[in-house]
Amino acid sequence: MNNFLSKLKRTTSVLCCSLLLIAMPNNHTSAASKPDSVVIVTGSGAASAAPDIANISLTISTTAEETSTASGENAAITEKVRVAVRELGIGKSDIQTSNYNCYPVYDNDNSISGYRVSNTLKVTVRDFSVINKIIDNSLAAGVTQISGLYFSLSDTSKLRSVAIKAAIGDAKEKAEIIAASLGKTITGIETIAESSSDSPRRYSNAMLLKEASSGTQIDGGELDYIATVTIHYFIN
C-alpha cells in the first residue's frame, strides 16, 4: 500500500510539472513570430532608342454631285498616290486604307448639293530619307491633307525590359535607404505592381509641312520608354 501511494505521488508530481511547463509562455517564440514591418516605395526607370518605323497618313478628298462620280474620282487619285509612293521603294503591304467616308454636302438652304468622298492611306516608312519625297510626291499626285507623322519602334520588348529593371533597381535602393535609416534590413517582398508606356514622337501637321517644304530632313530622334513599379518590402 505504501509503495502504491509513493508511486502515485511521483506521478502526480510529474504531471503537475508538465502542466506548469505547458502553461508558461514561450517568450522567444513570441518575439520570433513578430510580423515584419512593411515599407512601400515607388521606383521609375527609362530607356531610349532610335525609332525604326515612321507612319504617315495621306488623305484624298473629292466632291461631286453624284456619289459615283466622287468615289470614281477619288479611286483614280488614290491609285496615282499609291503609285507615287511605291516608286520611292514603299512596299505594297505598307500602304493601307485606314479610313474611308462618303457623306453629303449641304448648301446654305440645307439642301444636298453633292457628295464628298474621303480616303485616308496609312503609309509605313522604314527608310526615313524618303519621307520628304513621299510628302512632295503625294501632294503632287492629289493628296489634299497630310494627317500627321509619328515615329515608333517595331519591337519595344528590349526597351521595356531595360526600363523595368531600372525601375526595380530604383525602388530597391530607396527601400534599402529607408530600412538602414531605421536600423532594419529588407527581408522579402509582399507585393509588386508595374506600369509602363512608350511615347511615339509625333509631328503636327503644320510642323510636318513646314519642314518638308523647307527641304529639312525629318529626323526621328529618340523614343523614350518609361516604367514605374510600386513594391511593398518587408523589413525587420
The overall pLDDT average reads 84
Helical stretch tally: 6
> Beta fraction of the residues?
35-45%
Radius of gyration: 36 Å
> Distance N terminus to C terminus?
61 Å
Largest sheet: 5 strands, antiparallel
Order of helices and strands: HHEEHEEHEHEEHE
Bin the helical content. Answer: 25-40%
Low-confidence stretches: 1-5, 7-31
Strand order of the largest sheet: 3-4-2-5-7
Q: What's the shape?
A: elongated
Q: Can you describe what's shown?
A:
It contains six helices and eight strands; from the N terminus they run H-H-E-E-H-E-E-H-E-H-E-E-H-E. The chain is of the alpha+beta class and 236 residues long. Strands 3-4-2-5-7 form a five-stranded antiparallel beta sheet. Strands 1-8-6 form a three-stranded antiparallel beta sheet, covered by helices on one side. A hairpin with a 5-residue loop joins strand 3 and strand 4. Helix 3 (67-86) packs antiparallel against helix 4 (131-141) and helix 4 packs across helix 6 (205-214). It starts with a helix and ends with a strand.
TL;DR of this structure?
The protein is an alpha+beta fold.
Write the layout of secondary structure elements.
Layout lengths: L1 H22 L3 H6 L4 E13 L3 E12 L2 H20 L8 E12 L5 E14 L5 H11 L3 E8 L4 H25 L4 E14 L1 E3 L1 H10 L8 E13 L1
Antiparallel strand pairs: 1-8, 2-4, 2-5, 3-4, 5-7, 6-8
What attributes characterize this protein structure?
single chain; alpha+beta; three-stranded antiparallel sheet; 6 helices; 40% helix; disordered N terminus
